[in-house]
Amino acid sequence: MTIQKERVHYLYTVKGPAYGEEALVELICFAANWDGEISPCAEISEVDWISVKKTEWMAPAVVTLVEEYMER
User: Fold this and answer.
1) What is the rounded distance in angstroms from the CA atom of residue 49 to the CA atom of residue 39?
2) pLDDT in tens, 38-63
3) Secondary structure (DSSP) of 12-41
4) Fewest beta carbons within 10 Å, which of 3, 34, 60, 71?
5) pTM as predicted
6) Which residues face 17 on adjacent strands?
7) What is the distance between the alpha carbons of residues 28 and 9, in angstroms, rounded to a whole number?
């Protein structure tokens, strides 16, 4: 996969609980266009598209991110 650098733009930042830990994480979110296929590598073992309604599969901070994004 190759990111089209001229098509990257900042969306927003959200802070929320980490998954399975008593810690906070900060997610700095961007949108971009890309060429090629999205595929796992390094510490990422699997990639898949899921519905925003599948919150049980998401870390708490990601749920916050999705809820805030859907309000826009």
Assistant:
1) 12
2) 999 999 999 999 998 999 988 888 88
3) EEEEEEPTTSS-EEEEEEEE--EES-----
4) 71
5) 0.69
6) 24
7) 11
